[in-house]
Amino acid sequence: SDVCSSDLLFFILEYIMSDIKILRMVSGEDVMAEVKDNATSSFELTNSVVLIPDQNNQIQFIPYAPFVSSDTVTVSADKTIYVADPDESIIEHYKKLFGKIVTPSSQIIT
To answer: What is the model's pTM?
Structure first.
């Protein structure tokens, strides 16, 4: 079994299973992130950004928690008004921003 192939398969499965959502927070922020429902009273957000519309009707992505040491933060469900699926064009922009590049191992194939 090729280690590189299994790593790539794991990456693909992990990426496909990521659930990208928009959460409207009680503070009024629209937060887009890979969301994992903790089946409790919180959501685990990875690569979270706040969506800010500008004057040109474009969407700016601003880091949601720029001063934390991890890419993942947990937010309380009672601080969330709704969770919804983003528009496909916004998802594509998000994926370009957070897309993971898989590089092969440095093994020489002969």
So the answer is: 0.72
